[in-house]
Amino acid sequence: MNKLILFFLLLTGVSSRSQDSLAVAKSSTMPINEKEILVDNSIIKPLKFDPNYKKSYQSSDFIYDVKIAEKGIWDRFLNWLSFWFKKIFGLPNMDVSGKYVNLTLKTIAILLIVYVIYSIVKLILNKEEQWIFGKSTAQKILKYDDIELNLKHIDFEKLIKDTLKSGEQRLAIRYYYLWLLKKMSEKNVIDWNPEKTNSDYLYEIKNESIRNDFGYVSYLYNYIWYGEFDLDEITFEKAKKTFEKTLQSIS
Prior knowledge:
By secondary structure, the chain is mostly helical. 66% of the residues lie in helices and 0% in strands. Among the domains are: 53 residues; 113 residues, no CATH class.
């Protein structure tokens, strides 16, 4: 009997709460005015993708899978040098050692370039000497210098004969000139020195006749020996006779 009364009370409470909720829902509903509703009448254009859009994302900023490049032989060599530089010179770290290695390699490269340029210039100058002296070679030029340094011990008469047999007339004129310097030195007409010039010797010669003769043969010598032309037989014979006449006048 008590249970029946309790069930009846619970059922009555649930029913009353449902009716209260429905009443609240109805009272909270507001009437809607259609004029107050905003309607979006703008035209919507669909977006289109550029078919080549992928090209805009191919720069390094959009590459997220970074691949570590493998070190080549040169890189391994630089690392090896950096290691030994660090060890030998007591450098603080590999970065500092690497800078010193780069500086050293650049210095070596510059020195090599300078050496190559020097070798090329030297080669060009040697070739120019050969062009200036016609048939002369670098080896012969050295021999000329040796003869001039040992002027007092040279038999120029025999040397000129041997030179003419080989057809080197220009060289024979040079030997005539050196022979004349030797003879004037032996007769104390000049104080011979390989560093002196023709002008120096002219100032030393006291005898006016010898000075004039020497001035002329010096002109012939410079014209024939240093001149860039073919020496013909007539010009050579005239120069030869002039040198021999001057040599006889000093005797």
